[in-house]
Specification:
By secondary structure, the protein is mainly alpha-helical. It is built from 12 helices and no strands.
Amino acid sequence: MACSIAGVTFGEFISHLCWVTVLAIVVGWLILIRPIKLPSAQKISETAAEIRHERNGLLLALLPVAAVFMVVVFFKLNASVATGAVVVVWVFVLAAVGRRVGVGKIFLGAFDWKMTLNICCILYFIQVLSVTEVLGEIVAAFQASPLPVPVIIACVSLIIGILTGMSQGHVAIVMPIVAAMGTGDLNLAGVAMAFGVAGQMLTPTHVCLIVTVDYFKADLLKTLKPVLLGEILLLTVFSVYTYLTW
């Protein structure tokens, strides 16, 4: 949805921001994973056949995702077409290795009516902004501001991410402004996405965070402290790199 609204291709957008994913993994590992001290657990004995079965299952689960990524990024194929093609091929691959699955179960299981409804609502919201000319007024106000456009987009994205706690809400509100200010601008779309996602990670309205905190019986504020530190480091590096390469 973000790529469609901002007027950038899916493959280009992934290529533009893929280094941020690597950075996020590194920062998360240093701040969140390394400090964890787990008690030594009793070793569970597994047969070679069980280990091989689990390893093959993990490989079969990851390869389709990697295949879609490669096809979209390197062959510039539409994301929907690439996903559909990989799914069709993988039905035969799974059948060949003795892990046959029902085609109907794959497609019906992937259909999420709530997500479909959210997409329709996002498109309707964007149309309302355009027809009422509110979007034009917002863009004109931003352009008249003494602050640089990327700074405005970053601040708005962070705030909207914190307020909504969900990617659909952030995309619906911020990406139309990005498109109106610079359709096809990868840098501007990247700023909106990076800061919007950071806002979603730092808010109690983020459902994933609430469910996780409740499951582990953790303290919300104490949980947010290392996440906040990680996001500060991530956004600082991202902002410096984007500024130098704009």
